[in-house]
């Protein structure tokens, strides 16, 4: 696994990153293109995931197998801008 979508994505989902709502470690080709696209700065190389977001490593691996992928950007969640500066959003993750 090369990249991980972390806490910043929760309740935002801007989708500028396209196709990486969670990153499937088996298909990530380590292209790095998703990282600068995210307005929430939610995407990290696996060896730079902040300590308080390590849980997202396993979550990406798990959820990438069951969540649908997308290949076009969509509108972010209605209140995404209200949540983009909020940290510790794991409790709001909806499966
Ligand atoms: Fe999420 Fe950022 Fe993509 S908020 S959907 S990782 S652009």
Write a structural description.
With 95 residues, the chain is largely without helices or strands. It has two helices and two strands. The mean pLDDT is 89. A two-stranded antiparallel sheet has the order 1-2. Helices cover 14% and strands 6% of the residues. It binds FE3-S4 cluster. FE3-S4 cluster binds at residues 5, 8-9, 12-17, 20-21, 37-38, 40, 42-43.
Number of β-strand runs: 2
> How much of the residues is beta strand, in percent?
5-15%
Q: C-alpha Rg, in Å?
A: 12 Å
Small molecules in complex: FE3-S4 cluster
Q: Can you give the helix content as a percent range?
A: 10-25%
**What class do helices, strands and sheet pairing give?**
little secondary structure
Strand order of the largest sheet: 1-2
User: What is the global morphology?
Assistant: globular
Strand count, sense and barrel status of the largest sheet are: 2 strands, antiparallel
SSE string, helices as H and strands as E = EEHH
Number of helices, where a helix is a run of at least 4 consecutive DSSP H or I residues: 2
The N- to C-terminal Cα distance equals 21 Å
The stretches of 5 or more residues where confidence is low (pLDDT under 50) are none
Average pLDDT rating: 89
Name its key features:
95 residues, two-stranded antiparallel sheet, binds FE3-S4 cluster, 14% helix, little secondary structure, globular, 2 strands, single chain
């Amino acid at each position: 696994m090369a990249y991980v979508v972390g806490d910043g994505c929760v309740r935002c989902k801007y989708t500028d990153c396209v196709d990486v709502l969670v990153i499937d470690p088996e298909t990530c080709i380590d292209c790095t293109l998703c990282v600068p696209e995210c307005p929430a700065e939610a995407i990290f190389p696996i060896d730079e995931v902040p300590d308080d977001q390590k849980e997202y490593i396993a979550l990406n691996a798990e959820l990438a197998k069951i969540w649908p992928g997308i290949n076009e950007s969509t509108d972010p969640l209605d209140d995404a801008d209200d949540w983009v500066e909020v940290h510790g959003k794991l409790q709001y993750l909806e499966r």
